[in-house]
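Per your request, structure below.
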């Protein structure tokens, strides 16, 4: 939900429709998302959360250069989760490329469009699908 490097920062889950901002959190060298209303609290995203950025997404690599992705929409996910002590939070773009959240340039605004379904499939309420009645005789109705 939030990268391991934000363990010392207050966190809360994202909400649909809110605007979040990329920032570097005080006392860390880690970038992440915060609410416009409280930049000291990290807003955590679940894998599959869809975002719409206000502008084309900008990122940097070790503060040497800045590049722009020609896209304003992306989906939050994790990369290389099997490698410990490494940043995993990333935004995947429609062309299949991804950028680590810690590489996003500060001050970019994004709207949370949609959160992923978190309820396991087996626990959802099951409603049978209605199919057309192909019988040639009318159905019998119960009496009483």
């Amino acid at each position: 939900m939030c990268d391991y490097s934000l363990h010392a920062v207050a966190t809360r889950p994202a909400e649909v429709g809110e605007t979040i901002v990329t920032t570097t959190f005080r006392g860390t060298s880690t970038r992440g998302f915060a609410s416009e209303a409280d930049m000291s609290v990290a807003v955590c995203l679940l894998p599959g959360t869809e975002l719409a950025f206000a502008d084309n997404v900008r990122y940097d690599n070790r503060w040497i250069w800045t590049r722009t992705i020609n896209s304003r929409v992306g989906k939050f996910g994790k990369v290389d989760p099997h490698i410990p002590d490494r940043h995993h939070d990333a935004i995947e773009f429609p062309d299949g490329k991804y950028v680590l959240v810690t590489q996003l340039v500060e001050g970019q605004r994004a709207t949370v469009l949609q959160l992923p379904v978190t309820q396991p499939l087996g626990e959802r309420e099951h409603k049978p699908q209605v199919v057309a009645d192909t019988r040639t005789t009318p159905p019998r109705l119960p009496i009483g």
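The CA atoms of residues 47 and 77 lie 4 Å apart.

Regards,
D.
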